[in-house]
Structure formats: structure tokens, C-alpha cells
Design a protein that fits this description.
Layout lengths: L1 E4 L2 E3 L8 E3 L2 E6 L2 E5 L7 E3 L6 H4 L30 H4 L4
Antiparallel strand pairs: 1-2, 2-3, 3-4, 4-5, 5-6
Length: 94
């Protein structure tokens, strides 16, 4: 995952944008939002009016198959782990 703005991470090079912010993973499909504690499963529909504004306003198409800049901060969270948890031990270097 790559940090794309303060507090917002995105799964790199994925078929659709999956974000991590505010303790959850999020994605939007056809205007319908979903969230989960995991980046790859157990997504449940979530009310659009309750989605954090900093996520709703992102240019989602820009993050489809997104590749962060070489110097961007990256983490590789384990299953169910949140980005930045144990960051020093897991930080990837470009």
C-alpha cells in the first residue's frame, strides 16, 4: 500500500481502488460504497452520506492500477493489519 494523502493509503496496482483510512478499508463501485477491516474480503455496503469526505472527493479512476512515486511511503500490512502498524519494522524501501 502507498500513502497518497495524509491518512489515506491505497492498494497499489489493483484492479479498482481500495483505500485505507479512518481504521477501515474502503472502495466504491458505481456510486455504492463498501468498507471492511480487511483489504481483500468481507466488504459490506456502507451509507454514502457517512463516508468520510476526504475519501468521497478523491479522483477514484486515478487510483485504479495506481503506482506510487518511487519515493512514496509504502507498507505491506499483513492480513487484517492496518497500514502503519509496526511501521518501522515493515517499511519498504524503494
Amino acid at each position: 500500500m502507498v500513502l497518497v494523502s495524509p491518512g489515506v493509503w491505497v492498494v497499489e496496482d489493483y484492479d479498482y481502488p481500495v483505500y485505507f483510512s479512518d481504521g477501515f478499508y474502503w472502495y466504491v463501485d458505481g456510486g455504492v460504497w463498501y468498507r471492511s477491516r480487511y483489504w481483500d474480503h468481507e466488504f459490506a455496503r456502507y451509507p454514502r452520506e457517512q463516508v468520510p469526505g476526504h475519501l468521497a472527493s478523491l479522483p477514484h479512476e486515478q487510483f485504479r492500477h495506481y503506482r506510487g512515486a518511487p519515493e512514496a511511503e509504502r507498507v505491506r500490512p499483513g492480513r487484517g493489519e492496518q497500514p502503519g502498524a509496526n511501521r518501522e519494522a515493515r517499511r519498504e524501501r524503494p
